[in-house]
Amino acid sequence: MSTTAAALPKLQEEAYRGAWSWITTVDHKRIGILYGMTAFCFFLIGGLEALIIRTQLAVPEGTVVAPGTYNALFTMHALTMIFLVIMPIGAAFFNYMIPLMVGARDVAFPRLNALSYWVFLVGALFLNVSFLVGQPPDVGWFAYAPLTSKAFSPTHAVDFYIFGLQILGISSMMAGFNFIVTILNMRAPGMTLMRMPVFVWMTLVIQFLVVLAFPIITVGLIFLQFDRFFGTHFYLVEAGGDPLLWQHLFWLFGHPEVYILILPAMGIVSEVLPTFSHKPLFGAPFVIFSGILIGFLGFGVWSHHMFTTGLGPVADAAFSTTTMMIAVPTAVKIFNWIATIWGGRIRLTTAMLYALGFIAMFVIGGLSGVMHASPPVDLQQQDSYFVVAHIHYVLFGGSIMGLFAGTFYWFPKMTGRLLDEKLGKLQFWLQLIGLNVTFFPMHFLGVDGMPRRIYTYYGTDGWNGWNMVATIGSYLIGVSVLIFIHNFFRSLRAGKPAGADPWDGATLEWTIPSPPPVYNFARLPNVTSSRPFWDVKYASPAQKAQMEKAERERGAEHIHIPPPSYWPIVLAMGMAVFFAGWFFNPFVNVAGVLIVLAATFAWVYEPGH
Amino acid sequence: MSIRRHRVLALCLLAGAVAALAGCEMVSHTRSTINPVSDFGWAIQNVYKQIFWWCVGIFVFVEALLLIAIFRFRVREGSHETPEQVHGHTNLEIAWTILPAVILVFIAVPTIRTIFAVAAPAPADAIRVTVTGQQWFWHVDYPDLGIRTANEIHVPVGRAVEVSLHAADVIHAFWVPRLGGKRDVMPGRTNRQVFTVDKPGLYHGQCAEFCGTSHALMRFDLVAEDPASFDRWVAEQKSVPAPPTDPKLKTGATTFLTAGCIACHRIQGSPAQAQIGPDLTHVASRARIVSGMLENTPENMSRWISDPQAVKTDARMPNLKLKSDQVEVLVAYLQSLR
Amino acid sequence: MSTAAVAHAEETSLGQPHLKVGFWTFLGSECLFFGSLIATYMSYRGHSVTGPFPHHGPPTGTGILNIPVTTISTFVLLTSSLAMVLALAACQKGHRGKASFWLCMTALFGLTFLGFQAFEFTEFYHHGLSLTQNLFGCTFFVLTGFHGAHVSVGVLWLISLFVINQREGISPENALKVEIAGLYWHFVDIVWIVIFTLVYLIPD
User: Fold this and answer.
1) Reduced to 3 states, what is the DSSP secondary structure of residue A182?
2) Where are the strands (E) in B147-272, listed by range?
3) Is C16 exposed, middle or buried (0-12, 13-18, 19+ CB in 10 A)?
4) Phi and psi (nearest 5°) for B280?
5) Residues from chain A contacting residue C47 (CB–CB below 8 Å)
6) CB atoms within 10 A of CB A210
7) Is the ipTM above a cut-off of 0.85?
8) What is the pLDDT of residue C2?
């Protein structure tokens, strides 16, 4: 489908209706919406798991769930929130916003993008189908060997973990290649690297982390699969193997993964704060470089998850030092954010409140992180509720708050309507209070010696009070999410019309209508600074005249919109068949490979792409 | 958002925190990580204290800065002027890069000093204890004293103790919070922990690395006592119990040998010599049973023996389907093993 | 993948076609994949509890690795890289026949290498080294097996290109297709050189 902008509105209406159009879509905006909606469903599932966990722990010797079920719940809560919520909601924003923010009409490989989504969905279903067959993963999301070996986990629970993660890894890596190319290679004319919005920069860093970190866990999972299916001894002590190998591979992936989870929020906050302060981001190059530095250092700190394993004082000292070094670029970011709002004209919209809440909460998580960067202190805090408090301040107070900031900020761009501000603020305050009531007491529980991942405790342990408080807090968070759901559907139907630029934004996405047309930009923008739209809006009359003249001189542009394709979903299904084969028999594996190969050839020869 | 609503919310938050705090004042912190009773614990405590106060300082500074910025530059009604467009300030950037780095030096130096201090080898006269973690209980051996027991570790106050950690199956972690940090119990390697307890008492410990279904119930006790009491305990544990003479206990002993217990447990001075389950030679001398889970009473013991899985899910001890009279004599016998 | 990407190559920000930039990132990812496999092999070197051992097994026995044979197969694989270079050059110059010939040769060399590997694997198996025999068996077969799988995918790719070239020809403008396959092929070749050096040449 090649045409010009004038002919496109009609095309948009014809080809963009019905369920089939969603299944075959290769439009980055629609794929972004699919990612977002799917991830939100899993957010509810993961949240429900969390509520059951908290209900079980509300009082000593709770009897809400059996021990095995509890272990499955905390395992699946972590896997769900990490791989099926925070990563894909990030992906939803990357998909929807990156092409708009760099001034492109789609991502570099639209069909690969659709494939990433469908493969993600397959992986997500793989993990959760385990509940239906009564064998959900129950070895913790870190799945330490040798608890995962056939001897100690004879059911399929660990197999669901292995293949679920393998599939999700494939999806993330494919998306990673796609976004690296999109960002590096599809920037609008004049958009140099240093003129890219910080959100785009953080996305670029994240994608590099994804493509470099996921292969490591892939290898770790392959070893685990071979141990379980073919009788190898990678993690088995009896034959000379070492369970620590898994820990090294897992955390070599796992720590960059932590930054994969937090950097999207940092990127979003770096967009939201300037907009609502009516100022540019303070020290943008420093924010960008500290993001890159965090990414780099992220690969050199993995053993701080293993201080208690007894690596020896030299290794402990080395990894402690590298871990502490990460605090420097993080602090640089926080100071720059505060300097951004300093002297600004701060509008406390819900998006802005969430961005500010992000800073306030992330500081707490960051500081407790500094505490267990010290190995002696970590010997006390590791595997205690102190660490549970830490990760929730970072991932809930940090990532989720940042993602909500993004939701309130970009929802109008995606739907053409504003989310209700009153309900939004109610949700924010309830959530902020709820998260502090839930997670702050966990610091005390940890200091009082409560280990994590225990399904029960006794009244004499001295942990009753704070556990009850934490449980009450978790229900407050639950209510805040219900308010969001109400707000979401109400605003979708009857929200205030947003217009193209509801927040007085400075970046390219605000230059086009909300929701954007299929082709995004009728004409690709010409970028002259890091705030291209600001330059246009706040230009002097002389500058404006000059811009208009330049605009008139440009000819009509040829627009190429790739036609829809069903090969991505076919290929994803082939992969599903292949992985399902491990549960049935090798012929199913072979059938899966054949489907994948056939779909690949059809893919290559599909016309119009 | 009106200022009044801010205040109401702040008050609610404060009230909630105070109420919760009051609730917590009433409990005893039996496993506090910040109330150490050993040199190892104090070494950690000293680093922790320094880092903690640095963190509190930074927290107050940053959050205050943030709040001041928000309140001072909040948009005023009807104000539409564009603020000065500041893009950055190199000297400020340098300052807030160096400042955290300097603070980190203050954190890193005591940290690294302590890492090496707590890794120092045990003195020659240290009491050696070998602890073996197994789903879901602990074997305790004193190789120099020839004692084997389970789930209850006795150490003398004022003398160095070196604990060697072994795992029989999966990874566990040995943690007595008031004694100091935890150490993973790894299959295929031996980790060590050295400490000298400075205050007699009963200190609770628990497995801290997730190790399967009943990880939450893998507890143990550490009893620190004055050297004389410790020596008495050692003598007691080394003694071999005489075969019972009381008819009821005799039936109990026979039941132990015939019902299947013998397959896993050891009772010295009897034919039961298996070392898979906890050593029961002096089981009645222990304060608690089922790895620190239940008080050591006849009632609890019969509950446990009658249906182990009902007490501890997936417990490795099989349900031998004993009749109630069998359980009764068995418990009587075991309770006689002081 | 995308002909549009090729046609608009000159419009991209980096001046390189999307496919090429994307493929380089893919190879970066592959480096970590093989890096992890190789690192595992290296860290488990000499940790096998039972034989057969790769080099000089304790206390006396000789190693199971047949270095002369693998040297030949390594040479074959290296030669295939040369053939690949010639295939790309022919394609870029529009010499369709020559391109077909060298594509075919590259695939053949690749197949020969795979034949050597199949021979080596069966040979080892008959000498008692199975996947589950010892740590050397686990790490060796998984590492070289995944490399072999990569070579197989490459051979399939080259054969596909050969068929396309025979049926409709690959024009010099479309030489990117061959160039990408070449990148992959050279990468797999380089990985083998690392494996050959670390696994075969350096004794325990």
Assistant:
1) helix
2) 147-150, 152-156, 160-167, 172-175, 183-185, 191-196, 201-207, 219-225
3) middle
4) -110, 10
5) 240-242
6) 25
7) yes
8) 40
